[in-house]
Amino acid sequence: MQTQEKAAPGWDIVGHEHAIEILRRTLQAEQVRHAYLFTGPPHIGKTLLAQRFAQALLCTGGPDMHIAPINPCNVCLSCRKVRHGNHPDIHLVARAADKQAILIEQIRELQSDSARKTLEGRRNIFIIQNAHEMNVQAANCILKTLEEPEQDVVLLLTVPDGGLLLPTILSRVQQISMQLLTTLQIKNALTHRWHLETQEAGLIAALAAGRMGWAIQAVEKEELLAERKEQLELLTKLPMAGKMQRFEIAQRLSADADTLETTLELWLLWWRDIVLAAHGCLDLTVNVDMRDALKVHAAKIGAHAAQNMVRMILRTMELIAQNVNARVALEVLMLDLPTIQ
Ligand SMILES: [Zn+2]
After folding, report:
1. pTM value?
2. What is the pLDDT of residue 128?
3. Dist. CA 54 → ligand 1 center (Å)
4. Chain segment 8-63, per-residue pLDDT in tens
């Protein structure tokens, strides 16, 4: 007899009860649609939920095995293949690291795969990660599949916000919206499932700012927290730095395109915290281990300038996403950064 494999805790979904309930009812009523859209901020588990749903759709364990929410049995051959990431009927489509967009060639490949019979007989499932990264040609091409889907094809799309997709696509998918988790939900998951010490779990949960995926990364990649600390120390020094030093930092940051987005996200949280601290809401800040520094900076910079900085960072992120020269964008940001003597 097969025993249930003990999975890594990261495979379990924390929270998102509402989204799970919608999918569970779909499965129970056997009214699976051809396309679902998972929406919500980055790192909250959209792809994970899509994968779990795919697993449930392909599970051969039988309905009596479905006990909890969208519980695939985890035991049948199909389930085990999904968990090991090698089920032939689940296809992941995402932007290649060296490309600007999801390209039409990728969608054409999806279409030729979906016209083929499923390899193991149930459904042909395509997960399109960050579907808003499809360029116009690719988006128009996927419409064809959405308008006339093959019988057993299920498309699972993820995006941060439904508004980023063409209305013609939106009208053909069922939206499953996912929200940020509470700090407590994340903290509890970290202490109970990952067996972290309460204090460490508390810090990571606060820093995760509602994103379970980020919390898991911080647990799995120890250097992530050390890097964050280093980055924050740099941030606390920036308002005292002169123009030359600021430009040097802009150059250094822009040279590392891979980490730039994460760095700016961290900056955003830092400056948001200064706004909160300046309004006397220190207890709502995310960087719980840096509250002394936040208090000092808030007193010197003030809410108005800090708020302006939040806007400037958002604008910089937007510009970089639109392929504006990162170094130039960062230099402008550096000049706007408030000065403390
Ligand atoms: Zn199964």
Report:
1. 0.77
2. 96
3. 11
4. 555 678 889 899 989 988 888 888 899 999 999 988 999 999 998 998 888 887 65
**pLDDT confidence of residue 68:** 45
Residue 59 has a CB neighbour count (10 Å cut-off) of: 24
Q: Please check whether residue 128 lies inside any domain of the structure.
A: yes
Question: What percent of the chain lies above the pLDDT cut of 70?
Answer: 93
Residues 216 and 129 occupy one common structural domain: no
Strand partners, 175: 37
**Which stretches in the chain have pLDDT values below 70?**
1-11, 62-71, 119-121
Q: Which of 165, 191, 220 is the last residue of a domain?
A: 220
Task: Residue 198: give the domain boundaries.
Answer: 180-220
269 shares its domain with 200:
no
For residue 11, what pLDDT is reported? 65
Gap between the Cα atoms of 142 and 161, Å rounded: 18
Cα(129) to centroid of ligand 1, in Å? 24
Give me ligand 1 centre to Cα 81, in Å: 9
Residues 46 and 53: their CA atoms lie apart, in Å, by 11
**Chain-centroid distance, C-alpha 173:** 20
Ligand 1 centroid to 43 CA: how many Å? Answer: 26
Report the domain count for the chain. 3
Query: Ligand 1 centroid to 252 CA: how many Å?
Result: 49
Q: Is residue 111 domain-shared with residue 227, that is, in the same domain?
A: no
CA 76 to each of CA 63, 92, 216, 242, 328: distance values in angstroms, whole numbers, following the listed order: 12, 22, 27, 62, 54
Q: What is the CATH number of the domain that holds 142?
A: 3.40.50.300
Output the CA–CA distances (angstroms, integers) from residue 194 to 10, 44, 204, 323, in the order listed.
9, 17, 12, 39
pLDDT of residue 72: 75
